Amino acid sequence: MIGEESHARSRSFECILHRDRSETKLLSNHSTARHPVPCVRDCKLRTLTISSAANVSIITRYGYDNFFLLLGLGIALGIGAYVLRSHAIAAGILACLGVAVIGFAVWFFRDPDRVVPPSALDGRHVLAPADGRVVQITPTVEQEYLGDSAIQISIFLSPLDVHVNRYPVSGIVEYVQYHPGEYLVAWHPKSSELNERSTIGVRTSHGKVVFRQITGVLARRIVFETKVGDSVSAGERFGMMKFGSRMDVLVPTTAQLTVRQGDRVRAAESVIAIMP
To answer: d(Cα 51, Cα 157) in Å, to the nearest integer?
Structure first.
C-alpha cells in the first residue's frame, strides 16, 4: 500500500515537473518571438554600464603614498570624533574634517579611464597629456631635445583636475631629464625654465615632440616612470604631478594647432595639434 502511494506521488511529481517545463519553454519562446532584440540590447547595455562604472573610482598607483597617508589621517579624525562623542561640537568638527580629508584624497588621486581617439595612434595627432586649461600658446626655441624653433602649448592643472599624466603621442622615447628648481606659480612665464620639472622627448613617425611636467607653488613633487628607449602609445599613463601644476607640450612650428588659449582639455582625449 505504501509502495503504491509512493509510486503515485512520484508519477504526480513527474507530471507537474513536465508541465512546468513545457510552460516555461512556451513562455520563453513567446517572449523571444515578441521581444528578441531588446533583450539582447538590454543585456549588453547593462554590461557596458557596469564595466564603465567599475573603472571610474580607480586610485592612481602614482599617489598611493599620499593617498594612504591622507586616508589614515581621515580615519584618525573619525576615531577622534568617536572618542569625543559626548562633546557634540568637537566630535562634529572632527567628523566633518575626517570626511573632507578622505573625500579630497579619493577625488585628487582618482584615475578614470579615458577613450583614446583611434587617429591618435598614428604618431601624427598630439593629445593633451593632462586635464586642465590651455593658458599659453607661444613660439619658442627648444634647445634641450629639439634644438630648433617650436610652438609651446602650456596646460595649467588646478587642484580639482585629474593629475595623472599620459603620453601625448606614440613613438620611441629618446630623451628623459629631471631638473631640480624653484617653485614659481605654474602660470609664470619663467616656470618652464626655472621650476622643478621633467623633460621627455619622443620621436614619432612624423617628427619629434617634447613635453614637460612642471611643479608650481602647491605641486612639490613630480612622478614619472619613463626611460630612454621605451616604446610608448598615445594616451598611456606615465606619471603624475601632485597638488596643482603645469604641462608644456612643444611641437614643430609646422604643426597644425587644434586648440586656443583658454580651451579646456582632457588627457588622452583632446587633440591639441596635428604633426606635419
So the answer is: 28
Tell me the average pLDDT across 75-79. Answer: 96
Percent of the chain with pLDDT over 70: 75
Name the residue among 120, 200, 189 with its Cα closest to residue 165: 200
Backbone angles phi and psi of 154, in degrees to 5: -105, 130
Q: Using one digit for the tens of pLDDT, what is the confidence trace for 179-220?
A: 987 777 766 667 677 788 899 999 999 999 999 999 876 656
Domain ranges of the chain: 2-54, 61-108, 118-274
For residue 105, how many C-alpha atoms fall within 13 Å in the half-sphere facing its CB? 20
Per CATH, the number for 118-274 is 2.70.70.10
Q: Check pLDDT > 70 for residue 231.
A: yes
Helix (H, G, I), strand (E, B) or coil at 95: helix
Indicate the SS3 state at residue 84: coil
Catalytic residues: 245
The backbone torsions φ and ψ at residue 262, rounded to the nearest 5 degrees and listed phi first, read: 100, -15
Residue type, 200: I
